[in-house]
Specification:
The complex is a heterodimer. Chain A is mainly alpha-helical. Chain A folds into two domains: about 5-310 and about 405-590, Sodium/glucose cotransporter; about 315-400, no CATH class. Chain A has 24 helices and two strands. By secondary structure, chain B is mainly alpha-helical. Chain B has one domain (about 30-100). In chain B, helix 1 (about 10-45) packs antiparallel against helix 3. The radius of gyration of chain B is 21 Å and the shape is rod-shaped. Classes of the chains: A mainly alpha, B mainly alpha. At the A-B interface, helix 5, helix 11, helix 12, helix 14 and helix 24 of A face helix 1, strand 2 and helix 3 of B.
Amino acid sequence: MSVQTWTFLFVGVTFGLYLVIAWLARVSDTKGFYVAGQGIPAAANGMATAADWMSAASFISMAGIISTLGYAGGMYLMGWTGGYVLLALLLAPYLRKFGHFTVPDFIGDRYHSDVARIVAVVCAIFVSFTYVAGQMRGVGIVFSRFLEVDVNVGVYIGVAIVFVYATLGGMKGITWTQVAQYWVLITAFLTPAIAISLQYTGTPIPQIGLGSELVGQGTVLLDKLNQIHADLGFASYTEPFIGSWDKLNVFCVALALMAGTAGLPHVIVRFYTVKNVAAARWSAFWALLFIALLYLTAPAIGAFARYAMLDGLHGKTEAELPEWFHSWEQTGLILWLDDGDGTLAYTGTDANEIFRSGNLGTAQVAGIKRDHERWLRGDSAGRDGRAVLRQAGLSGPDRDIIVLATPEMAGLAAWIIAFVAAGGLAAALSTASGLLLVISSSVAHDLYFRIVNKEATESQRLLVGRGVIGVAVIVAGILGIYPPGFVSQVVAFAFGLAAASFFPVIVLGIFSKRVGTVPAVAGMIAGIGFTAAYILGSVYGGWSNWAFGIGPQGIGVVGMVLNFAVTLGLTPFFPEPDESIQELIMSIREPEGAGPGLDIDHSIEAD
Amino acid sequence: MAHAPDARDPRVADAVNRYWRRNVTIMSVLLIVWAVAGLGAGVLFADTLNAWSLGGIPLGFWFAQQGSIIVFVVLILVYAVMLNRLDRQHHEELAAIERGQS
């Protein structure tokens, strides 16, 4: 069977499975819709959190980024796992003890202010949209390759699928579906990694393969990579702090991702779904363990893919080029503009002939290719397409293809290639639905029920929730078609925004009894305002990293420091929280009261 | 909430304060390890550590892409075990105070 047939089969079967689970677990009351009736076992909840967490960015982009950046790719690995430590130690158990639905709920109650609540809702929606846009783009890339359609058509298909799927079941459906999605995505990620590791190094464990000798070469993989990189004019693969990724920027991006993880609303909401405080801690452990399975494998895939790509492309003629190159060439995610000698050069210098089309339209790319042909013939109207694309910053293949293309590069069986597509889809779907739920609960619960219509009935709230999901999917689809960058870059912005807005006020809300409403709200606004302005200014306004040379991906750290500074700086000038808030803080800090074995299921809707 | 401790009892307030101090101590130690393994070994000292190598992988590079993640998983495991034990001790302490009262 062809790759395409296998893809239809796997995508069809896994998708059917998710729908069946959603149908079996369909829910009718609001509480189930948002937090799954609070009875999910810790390990299952950890698995669902892991699936929720590992998005298209983790699955599709991350190994590709590591493959391109080498050492600096580690900042994503550290950032997206290190954040779990912050989450587990600083937030999860306390928010579980607090026991309400959402993050804005906590902020609204702790700071006893509707203004704080609204600011938190706006931050939650803003962060979630940025993130969900990255997922839609990821789904689009999967479909564009395997259905052989344009990336944008792929995004439309993704929008339709996510919409059907997110409105069919509630959180109950989502939790158990995400458990299934976790298995699909982790098997799809590990299978090709193990196969490639066996093929290249003879060991079935990719993490060991990363440091092993290449079969028949007598050279260690990473040494070989460094040597090829040096020969072709690329920066070293294992040496840190080269080019724009200096120590400060790697540090800031890693820290922004860590604090952002801890402030991401769709992850935090997961910890309300377990039985008690102890289970919230276990749940955080299981989640990170399941996440680590993929994150520890990604560096191996990155290095193998780098080797396969350089070895498979550089110095080859048209006739010698591997099959995978041609199938991905159709998507525009990898381009070859020859200098006339008929041999492909993939280097880190001006002689490089491998590019990607990025945000250029099909017509623009065709125009550049036409001009390039003329230039090759010596026509004065022609233009060197390589220079044009290099100046547009489009050297090298699109990073997002690397995980999806790796099985093809290594010549693995057609079914493995197709299975990876199903895995990528599972990763994107599980995260998108988790995020959409946060968006819908933010609007339906925190905004509509808590502020606009305090008398709203359950069915009214459910209706608003579902309506918001519909609108959110469409908006996210539009954002997916016009993305401001790579999947994982878009996602990195979402983390920066979360780090700058939520993280400081939640931490201070738990660990300080002194911080009051006005300082917290001012801090949130200052943090997210500065970070959003800096990101927009850098991406669209041509700002040149004026804040200590920190790029837009790491700027969330500065926003976070600003948030802390504003909040703590204003605190002495404003009154401390009243008696009832003090009691709330004391009760959050204490696991007793929601004590072991006590059923808090029915105490929640009572307030 | 039937089992909420009575904060007016000074012995209960003491127990709660003790619990919170221990919690903060455990947390601080673990967070220091977190910072040293992740941001320290993985970023700040990565260039220095690269002089050594572990199983064919330069050490700084290994910390950034493998070691830090392993440390993080272990940290949360240690935290869950220690804190859940502390919770149980605290629960028993409060129960003892309550028994003493009645």
